From TrEMBL:
A Pfam family of this chain: Cytochrom_C
Native organism: Rhizobium jaguaris
InterPro entries: Cyt_c-like_dom (IPR009056), Cyt_c-like_dom_sf (IPR036909), Cytochrome_c-type_DH (IPR051459)
Domain Cytochrome c: 43-151, 193-302
Transmembrane segments annotated in the record for this chain: 7-26
Lineage of producing organism: Bacteria, Pseudomonadati, Pseudomonadota, Alphaproteobacteria, Hyphomicrobiales
UniProt keyword terms in alphabetical order: Heme, Iron, Kinase, Membrane, Metal-binding, Transferase, Transmembrane, Transmembrane helix
Protein's name according to its UniProt entry: Diacylglycerol kinase
Top-rank taxon: Bacteria
Length: 304
């Protein structure tokens, strides 16, 4: 009887070890090799600046309340409240100690496209790499080149404040297994080049779905509710539906949307408010053709 119990216990332990090892292998960080980033050439700084504004980097990474040129000092420090705890946005200035000054293009590219940090650790998806993974290598190279031209800051953001079990980074591999991929969020039949460009901007650097799409209990997007509106991640109110089925925007033309993104004024002469006001100011810096492409995509997505 004792021998049988011991064999049973050893089998159970073995299964647990095998299960844990399988989980780790399947969900381990998987950065792209350095060779992937080796031959992209010199960055196009002008394009990198456009990618910077498309991505709204300053809205999160500048010091809270920064204005004017201070918005280009990416010192971090903004606190992002969530159901999983409080995330503190890091310094991504070129400072060698507090920021990304010691990083390489490969380090930066793997953070953007694989959600993997410089030390090989999983990054939390509060940093929207789930959207950035759709960006082109060229745009990431150009953005990296532009970031290195910005002022340095020695500010060190505090660590995230996350309760157990959300403070266990290993579990992020399971989250990635369930939700992380680089496939289009929606498939639009017969999309022309303008719609394709808008899809790239909205689903990639613009990461619009991060606020405008509802999530399940683990923080993954509800795939059949893309851009259909969601609770405000900052805790108050809601983020609107921006599909053609929206009660507010459903009657807007593509021209109305493009004008709103440029000026901040709706067809009813209301103005952008809350966090969208900052988003609109960033998008206003893009070429008119990009705002028109975003509008064309938003008119082409499925109504919810």
């Amino acid at each position: 009887m004792v021998a049988r119990f011991v064999r049973w216990l050893l089998c159970l332990v073995g299964l647990v070890i095998i299960g844990f090892a399988t989980f780790y292998v399947v969900t381990a960080p998987s950065p792209l090799p350095a060779s992937h980033w080796a031959n992209l050439g010199d960055p196009d700084i002008k394009n990198g600046e456009q990618v910077f504004w498309a991505g709204g980097c300053t809205s999160c990474h500048a010091a809270p309340g920064a204005q004017g040129d201070a918005k280009l000092v990416l010192s971090g420090g903004l606190a992002l409240n969530s159901p999983f705890g409080t995330f503190h946005v890091p310094n991504i200035s070129p400072d060698e100690n507090a920021g990304l000054g010691s990083w390489t293009l490969a380090d930066f590219g793997n953070a953007m496209k694989r959600g993997v940090g410089k030390k090989g650790e999983h990054l939390y998806p509060a940093f929207p790499y789930g959207s950035y993974t759709r960006m082109s290598d060229k745009d990431i190279n150009d953005l990296w080149g532009f970031l290195k031209t910005l002022p340095k800051s020695s500010n060190v953001a505090p660590p995230h404040e996350l309760p157990f079990p959300f403070d266990i980074r290993l579990a992020l591999g399971g989250w990635k297994f369930l939700y992380f991929n680089d496939q289009p969020r929606v498939v639009i039949a017969n999309a022309d080049d303008k719609i394709k460009r808008g899809q790239y901007l909205v689903e990639g650097p613009g990461h619009c779905g991060e606020c405008h799409t509802p999530r399940d209990g683990l923080g993954g997007f509800l795939r059949d509710q893309w851009l259909a509106g969601a609770p405000n991640p900052e805790g108050k109110g809601s983020i609107p539906d921006i599909t053609p089925g929206s009660k507010k925007m459903g009657n807007w033309s593509a021209g109305d949307i493009a004008n709103y993104l440029e000026t901040g004024f709706t067809p009813e002469y209301d103005s952008a408010g809350g966090s969208m006001a900052e988003v609109q100011k960033n998008i206003a810096r893009l070429p008119a053709s990009d705002r028109e492409a975003i509008a064309a995509y938003l008119k082409a997505v499925p109504a919810r």
